[in-house]
Design brief:
about 375 residues; alpha+beta; L-fuculose-1-phosphate Aldolase; 2 domains; 15 helices; about 50% helix
Length: about 375
């Protein structure tokens, strides 16, 4: 029964793009013995009860009694191994979410973790912490922390501290430059908490992103740019053009675009890479040269390019991919506007950006290793 309820919660929030983009977020249900966590590679919008990974709560809790390597990569690999061992029999082919340890920290049966745009307007803002503390006395604020074991350990410490101090179970956790956790013992409790948080933030919002599309552009320049960008990027990608009121403001000058030059949350890096390109010269050779220089500097081709006074170009392997890159980048655009209500954007710290950039590679590697191991 609990699994049906968590599947319903997942479908409801997972199909609303105010809460979930590009397969992000995760949910869980727990009883005394087991945690059922969304499996990697499933989407909240369509997850079935079988899509959850059944895990031993005791074995997950045992992770906190162990001492792991001081070396970051080794430590994450060791923790991952223990996490995989905490899966119950019959769950071998599944991979639990990287945020599993966090889910198990909450006492409540249902946990919803998402990265809503408006909430991240606050978590990615200079005054995020003070506003969260003023708005919600039940909220725990976690400063930007590398994901995985270190983040889970910090949350554990803060949740324990909160529960000892208030004698209440923690049910609301904000992660700076990342997202939010909601926890409750039933569906109504989750909905109530989400509504309280969303409406409290909404009441403070004066500046709202205006994504009304703008059609007054020179289509011959746009068509040329699509062609040149595709050639400079290589591998015959799909290039999607977007122009709306916010994009128009941001592409007006390099100065206006500056706010997007550094990432705000891990999602933006995972789907759109850490740094975008601002194009000021539109002829074929200049575009080629700008891409070559960018690749030389960053080691990858940019997924997002803004052409001065023209608009935004998102690159993907195919049309679907380019649409995902576009929606995730528009999320960054919207966050940059919402953050203006809360003291302006607070970008990710450079060492956190590096961590995510490298961590992606690591998690991919471990995934491949995992798949190979599964064949034994
Ligand atoms: Zn997350």
């Amino acid at each position: 029964m609990g699994l049906n309820v968590i599947a319903e919660i997942s479908h409801f929030y997972g199909s609303d793009e105010r809460y979930v983009l590009a397969g992000g977020g995760n949910t869980s249900f727990k009883n005394e013995e087991n945690l059922y966590i969304k499996g990697s590679g499933t989407a909240l919008a369509t997850i079935t009860p079988e899509g959850f990974v059944k895990m031993s709560r005791k074995m997950l809790a045992d992770i906190w009694t162990k001492t792991y390597s001081e070396d970051k990569d080794k430590r994450e690999a060791e923790v991952l191994k223990d996490m995989m061992n905490a899966k119950c029999e019959g769950e071998e082919g599944k991979r639990p979410s990287v945020e599993t340890l966090l889910h198990n920290l909450f006492k409540q049966q249902y946990v919803l973790h998402v990265h809503p745009t408006m909430v991240n307007g606050l978590t990615c803002a200079v005054s995020g912490k003070s506003i969260v503390e003023a708005l919600f006395d039940n909220a725990i604020w976690i400063e930007e922390t590398e994901p995985g074991y270190v983040l889970a350990a910090k949350c554990r410490e803060r949740i324990n501290e909160y529960e000892n101090r208030t004698n209440k179970d923690a049910d609301l956790l904000f992660l700076q430059n990342h997202g939010i956790f909601f926890a409750a013992d039933d569906r109504d409790g989750i909905d109530k908490l989400v509504n309280e948080v969303m409406s409290a933030i909404d009441r403070l919002v004066t500046f709202r992103p205006d994504l009304t599309s703008v059609d007054t552009y020179d289509s011959s320049i746009v068509d040329d740019l699509i062609k040149y960008i595709a050639e400079a990027y290589g591998n015959d990608p799909y290039v999607k053009f977007t122009l709306n009121k916010e994009v128009e403001k941001l592409c007006a000058s390099k100065e206006a675009f500056k706010v997007l030059m550094e990432p705000m949350s891990p999602d933006h890096i995972v789907y759109c890479k850490a740094v975008p390109l601002f194009i000021e010269c539109f002829d074929k050779d200049s575009i080629k040269a700008q891409y070559a220089e960018f690749i030389n500097t960053y080691g990858y081709a940019p997924k997002i390019a803004f052409a001065k006074g023209i608009g935004m170009f998102a690159v993907g392997n195919n049309i679907k991919d380019a649409a995902t890159v576009t929606s995730v980048w528009l999320d960054a655009v919207k966050i940059s506007v919402y953050a203006q209500n809360f003291g302006g954007v607070r970008h990710m710290a450079p060492d956190m950006v590096d961590f995510i950039v490298n961590w992606e590679v690591e998690s991919y590697r471990s995934k491949v290793a995992l798949n190979n191991g599964g064949n034994k």
